[in-house]
């Protein structure tokens, strides 16, 4: 698929989700894997908009790109917001996840979902660009 570049705003979440659905359909990804990937991209794009740009006082775009490589659908989110490597964040443990919502620490679940539900995740910072790369096996 052709990459899609959108303003880093909450209005862009719907077209980002649709891009994932279209890419997953074209790749032949299962409905369950498509749902998980759509949820992951929505969560991480929301974090990019909120924290990578909003809290940092920055403006910019998000580019989403989808391609099939070696029996995997690869979705890449690119942005120029603040650097943030998901893979270096501490994930909630079983004790934290078993607590009622009102007793849990705020944040971290999106990262947990990403690391749990995506087959391969990679983060790169090249120059002033963040690359969040998500891969799902086509089964």
The gyration radius over C-alpha positions equals 15 Å
One letter per element, helices H and strands E, the order comes to EHHEEHHEE
What proportion of the residues is helical, as a percent range? 25-40%
**What composes the largest sheet?**
5 strands, antiparallel
How many beta-strand segments? 5
Uncertain regions spanning at least 5 consecutive residues: none
CATH class wording: Alpha Beta
Quick check: average pLDDT? 87
Outline the structure in words:
The protein has one domain (4-137): Histidine kinase-like ATPase, C-terminal domain (Heat Shock Protein 90, 2-Layer Sandwich). The chain starts with a strand and ends with a strand. The longest helix has 24 residues, at 31-54. The chain has helices at 13-27, 31-54, 94-98, 109-117, and strands spanning 4-7, 61-69, 72-79, 120-126, 129-137. It has a five-stranded antiparallel β-sheet, with helices on one face. The chain has 139 residues and is of the alpha+beta class. It is built from four helices and five strands, in the order βααββααββ.
């Amino acid at each position: 698929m052709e990459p899609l570049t959108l303003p880093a705003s909450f209005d862009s979440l719907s077209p980002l989700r649709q891009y994932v659905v279209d890419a997953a359909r074209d790749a032949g990804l299962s409905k369950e894997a498509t749902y998980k990937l759509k949820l992951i991209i929505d969560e991480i794009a929301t974090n990019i908009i909120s924290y990578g740009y909003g809290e940092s006082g920055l403006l910019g775009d998000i580019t989403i790109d989808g391609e099939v490589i070696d029996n995997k659908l690869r979705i890449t989110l690119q942005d120029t917001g603040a650097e943030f490597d998901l893979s270096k964040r501490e994930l909630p443990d079983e004790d934290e996840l078993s607590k009622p919502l009102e007793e849990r620490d705020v944040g971290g679940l999106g990262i947990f979902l990403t690391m749990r539900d995506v087959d391969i995740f990679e983060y790169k910072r090249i120059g002033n660009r963040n690359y969040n790369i998500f891969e799902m096996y086509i089964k």
